[in-house]
Structures are given as structure tokens and as C-alpha cells.
């Protein structure tokens, strides 16, 4: 995508220097990446909203059958979630 913007910039006679690459990258990120990031966040929030009752129910069942979670389980779950982000 950056390559296409560079070709477009060369066709219109845009001098390619560091500012031009910065402007092309900014244009690419605003026009193309920002909507995809918003869509991804929206879809993740929908999934969390839909699946949270299921996870809460499973967690209640787990606490009833196995007792409270150990600190190792909590830390490993936190590390897993932080790496997914």
C-alpha cells in the first residue's frame, strides 16, 4: 500500500523526502488502518459482551467444583491476556 502511495506521489510530481514519506504513512494510517482498528475493537467488544455470561457461568461452576483459583492460574491468565493485547 505504501508502494502505491509512493507511485502516486511520483506521478503528481511530489518530491519524495522524509516529510513526504511521513505524510504518506500518516495518510495510509488514517485512511486505511484506523477504520480496521475501530472495526476490530467493536467486534471484540461485541464478542466480550456476548460471551461474558458464558464465562461467568463457567467460572461459577469452576469455583463450586474446584474451589478458588490458585495465584499461579491468575498470573498465567493475566500474562496470556496481556500478550494477546
Write a structural description:
The mean pLDDT is 69. The chain has one domain (2-84). It contains three helices and no strands. By secondary structure, it is mostly helical. This is Transmembrane protein.
Largest sheet features? none
Instruction: Give the C-alpha Rg.
Output: 23 Å
Element-by-element helix/strand order = HHH
Helical run tally: 3
Instruction: Kindly give the count of domains.
Output: 1
List the SSEs and their pairings.
Blueprint: H1 2-11, H2 18-66, H3 71-84
Organism: Medicago truncatula
Protein name: Transmembrane protein
Keywords: Membrane, Transmembrane, Transmembrane helix
In a nutshell, what does this entry contain?
This is Transmembrane protein. It comes from Medicago truncatula. The chain contains 3 helices and no strands.
